[in-house]
Amino acid sequence: MRKVSSASKNADRVFRVATGVAASSPVVFLVVIALIVLVQAIPSMKFNGWHFIYGIQWNMGNLYGALEHKNGVTAAAGASYAALPFIVGTLASSIIAILIAIPISMFTALILAYRVRGVLQWILSILVELLAGIPSVVIGLWGIITLAPWVRDNLAVWLSHLGPVVPYLRGPVGTGLGLLSSGLVLAIMIVPIITATTRDLLMQVPILYREGGIGLGMTTWEVVRYICMPFIRDGFVGALALGWGRAMGETMAVLMVSGSAMNLLPHNLYSPISTMAAVIADQLDSALTDASQMAVHALAELALILMVLTLLTNFLARWLVTRTGRRRSTKAGVAA
Amino acid sequence: MALRRKRRKFGSTMGWTLGWIATALVLFSLADMVGTIILKGVASFRWNMLWTVTSGEAGGLENAILGTFELIIISIILAGPLGVLGGIFTSEFASKPVAKTIRFLTEVLSGVPSIVIGYFGYLLMVLQWGWGFSPIAGGIALTIIMLPYILRNTEASLQQVPLSLREAAWGLGMTRFQAVYKVIWRPAAGGMATGILMAIAIGMGETAPLLYTAGWSSLNPTWQLTHHQLGYLTYIVWTYIDMPYTASHQLAYSAAFVLLVIVLVINIAVRALVTRPSLRR
After folding, report:
1. Do A251 and B277 touch (CB under 8 A)?
2. Which residues form the ABC transmembrane type-1 domain (chain B) (predicted)?
């Protein structure tokens, strides 16, 4: 038997190290991103304290005046940064998006998984996935030219008739650029993600379970309702969390239809808002012009909060989705 | 009994009807979106936009198209090898818990909001390292966006290759490296290419990571990597739709149209080729 030459042994070793380095790069990026954002946020934390989370005014101060020193850090005179409107805007718009997306993506996934097959299933799945591939600025553009006018002229007017019952639906309906439009745009962006995940989960439900249900005389819908949905429940919640994280981090589409409100809490469903992601993108100029750099640090703190929020939802989502998958694999052994 | 049966049947019909309505709604929004952008785009697109640069309130798209390509080239040069090699490691060399950890952290990285990645690029590369708004900063930000897709796709397609193929290769006396580069990558090549193409489509459509890293310029890009702002298509869509002039709006529509066509072509081609029903499973 011929021995493996030392050259190819070395090549093997070099290759293994190179791939190992490449495989560790996502971890490195993740850690570096978190570290840099955290370090840059510290001056803002010192300067603003907890006020950052519950205050309303985002005020860069007098950029041409003297600098102010407070808690060992320097900022423009009169500056005060607080992010409550952006946190509220992020949570409100993403929750609206989730509320819209839950029924739509669940029903669509059911159709994709159980009601169509073969070529039709393939085509419909591709179309739903295409929606996920559309760039967010393009969705934002569509939001400005089609969705916002429709919301202003039809949907909001109709919803405001319910104003006497639900105070948040009361008018004025404004320009169409605001919370409701942001929620709708976000819903469109997360529906394909949730649908695709849910469809895959539904296809994992063992066929024997479904056949058993049919054999008991259940209608096809009852099989879905009492067998399939309970089976994928955790995974479905995970898919929602995944979509929620996406909705909170989405920037451009929201920025284009949110109305970019500053220093203002939303008072009804149609108020202009701003989300954390959108405000970071929107405040580029202020980051460039503040000589004391405090605006940069404040935006970094905003980015930090956003990152923590999305990472938490992502952890939760991954945990829930993989848990369903594992349960399937243990039970599939019985079926097979 | 008869009433109960009727009620259950009615419930079933209702449920599936709602299902079809939801599906129709999703397809309608897709059709409306694509239709609107394409109609507006076709109406405002002029061929000479392809060889004039942006100027003031209107002009063309040449600088933005070239800038987008430059950013994509830089980021694919970085993300391609990192992702493919990383995927090979995760699939071929890593032990189970290590592979699981890498997979998990890659998913987490893809969940980091793109604006946070962009802002990170601004803090580290533009300010701290002093590169200024530059192609390389934008390219690295895009790299971070693309990397998870390439890595995951590579790994998933390698996992599809049957173990017997590896065993045969090892049985011939190949080292693991030889097995990968002579045998195993071949059946997985399609999947890897898919990952890279999808990553390109995603990178082309991104705006948020570039705002703080690439800047904006109405001049054609050069190959200067630092201290040189450059334009890209998505920026035009975002800013020119906010201007009060018709010509600017037309430029925004055209940019969105060009972008949408490229992204859709990549998406459809990849999905049509890779997930054809006959080839599935």
Report:
1. no
2. 65-270
A12 with B178: Cβ contact below 8 A: yes
Interface A-B, measured as beta-carbon pairs within 8 A, has a size of 288
Do the chains contact at B81 and A22, CB–CB below 8 Å? yes
Task: Identify the burial level of B49 via C-beta atoms within 10 angstroms of its C-beta, where 0-12 means exposed, 13-18 middle and 19 or more buried.
Answer: buried
Partnered with residue B86 across adjacent β-strands are none
Residue at A293: amino acid letter:
Q
Q: What is the pLDDT of residue B281?
A: 41
- Model ipTM? 0.90
A59 touches chain B (CB under 8 A): no
Q: Which domains does chain A have, with CATH numbers?
A: 6-77 (no CATH), 84-335 (1.10.3720.10)
**pLDDT (tens digit, 9 = 90+) per residue, B167-226?**
999 898 888 888 888 888 888 888 888 889 989 999 999 888 998 888 888 888 888 888
User: Other CB atoms closer than 10 Å to residue A3's CB: what's the count?
Assistant: 7
- Mean pLDDT over B64-83 rounds to 93
Query: Please, what's the b/e burial string for A136-147 (b: 16 or more CB within 10 A of its CB; e: otherwise)?
Result: bbbbbbbbbbbb
Range B85-93 average pLDDT: 91
> How high is the pLDDT of residue B78?
94
Question: In the predicted model, what is the mean pLDDT of residues A144-168?
Answer: 85
Question: For residue B117, which phi and psi values (nearest 5 degrees)?
Answer: -65, -40
B66, exposed or middle or buried, with CB in 10 Å at 0-12, 13-18, 19+? middle
Chain A 128-157, CB below 8 Å of chain B: which residues?
Answer: 128-131, 133-142, 144-146
Checking DSSP bridges between strand A62-70 and strand A73-77, what pairing results, if any? Answer: antiparallel
pLDDT at B191: 84
CA distance B86 to B144: 13
Question: Amino acid identity of A69?
Answer: H
Rounded to a whole number of angstroms, the distance from the CA of B61 to the nearest CA of chain A is: 16
Instruction: Decide if A234 contacts A328 (C-beta within 8 A).
Output: no
- If contacts are CB pairs under 8 Å, which of residues 241-270 in chain A contact chain B? 242, 245-246, 248-252, 255-256
User: Which residues in chain B have Cβ-Cβ distances shorter than 8 Å to A256?
Assistant: 238, 241
Q: Write out pLDDT tens, residues A177-225.
A: 889 999 999 999 999 999 999 999 999 899 999 999 999 988 899 999 9
Cβ of B108 within 8 Å of Cβ of A103? The answer is no
- Spatial contact of A290 and A60, defined as CB atoms under 8 Å apart: yes
Distance from CA of B22 to the nearest CA of A (A): 5
Residues contacting A85, CB < 8 A, separation 6+: A56, A58, A261, A262, A263, A264, A265, A266, A273, A274
* Partner B contacted by A63 (CB < 8 A): no
Q: What is the pLDDT of residue A324?
A: 64
- Residue of B147, B234, B276 with shortest CB distance to A135: B234
Q: Collect all residues with Cβ–Cβ distance below 8 Å to A190 and sequence separation of at least 6.
A: A97, A98, A101, A105, A243, A244, A246, A247
**In B, which residues are within 8 Å of A144 by CB distance?**
241
Q: Which residues of A touch B205 (CB under 8 A)?
A: 133-138
Q: Which residue of chain A has the CA closest to B210?
A: A281
Query: At residue A307, does pLDDT exceed 90?
Result: yes
Give the tokens for residue B223. 């190959």
Q: Give the minimum alpha-carbon distance from B238 to chain A in angstroms, rounded to a whole number.
A: 6
Q: Where are the domains of chain B?
A: 1-44, 50-279
